[in-house]
Give the backbone structure.
Amino acid sequence: MSKHEAITVGSGPEQVGLAFLTLAYGVREDVDRHMLSTAGLSLSRTKVLQALAAHGTLHQAQLAEALGQAPRSVTQIVEGLERLALVTRTDDAEDRRRKTVSLTDKGRTTLAAAEEAGTHALRKVFGSLDRQQLASLQALLTRLDTAVASPADARRGHRHPTASQE
């Protein structure tokens, strides 16, 4: 019996939902642990570097918005990344209270290693499924994503990340 089966009994929406949340949390923890041990970068820090790689130099507020996180949380992550020389922060030329964040060459190299480690960890888990099972899981995730999306998310074009978006 797996960890998530031990805490759920039955097959109603609540039990299946709880099993899904428990499993998703465990997979995230495994991916995070593998990324940290292999590349020295957590999943949350990797997401910040990915946003910078995709969008280029951003103000910290823009970065927080792109990540869907509170500005203070992003500031703490960026400060840690700056100490590791993975990003640089500079004063905005027009408003010295604002900081712009840029990815460094070391940040790009570390990001590539972290993404490779994350891919390896995900392939280990989801590689156990055959093509039909993966397609079924993708269809279910898409259905759940639609059920979770709020009307405000739909107006802004925001979607929760699913396998097709990664």
